Amino acid sequence: GRDRDASGARPGNSGEAGWHIRSPGPVNLCYNAKGENMDELIGKALGKYHIIELLGEGGMARVYKAVQLELARYVAIKVITPQPQAHASDEDTLSFAERFEQEAIAVAGFNHPHIVPVHDFGRAHDLHYMVMALIEGHTLKEELKKRRAENRLFSLAEIVHIFEALAGAVD
Predict the structure, then answer these.
(1) What is the spatial distance between Cα 13 and Cα 16, in angstroms, rounded to a whole number?
(2) CB distance 119 to 132 below 8 Å
(3) pTM given for the model
(4) Which of 37, 47, 102, 129 is deepest in the core (most CB within 10 A)?
(5) Nearest Cα to Cα of residue 55 among 36, 73, 75
(6) 10: which residues sit within 8 A by CB, 6+ positions away?
(7) Cα gap 63→129, rounded to integer Å
(8) CB atoms < 10 A from the CB of 86, how many?
(9) Coil, helix or strand for 158?
(10) Per-residue model confidence as pLDDT tens digits over 9-21
């Protein structure tokens, strides 16, 4: 069976109990001074996807866990973080969005077991997003942090496995 979300509900039809989808309107992708999540996308719809939780973020984008109700599946959605207007002109924002779209098109062209498949790309409520397969589990970054705390190194076989996967993905 499919996974359940934090409320115990399964993804399904939009009328199914447990799923209440609201349009985000103007979106605030940030944390307050106390570090509390002030992310207004969580619990709302972005296109045909219902945002469930924030998975991670970088300098230019955030990645969310979402559900695609039509296909009853969980997905990962990478959303461009809105750039402050004081630092970006309309031309900069446009070229940034164009680069994001080019990234989506390029990655969607790959078919490799070590590259996350791209399912969709879109724009809703002035936000650009890329929809990818949701890969459950921990990241290499998390594994490195855990091993560092345990003072435990990777074995030679583990290192070879990691580098073969990386080399195969970029080959």
Answers:
(1) 5
(2) yes
(3) 0.65
(4) 129
(5) 75
(6) 1, 2, 3, 4, 16, 18, 72
(7) 9
(8) 5
(9) helix
(10) 444 444 443 444 4
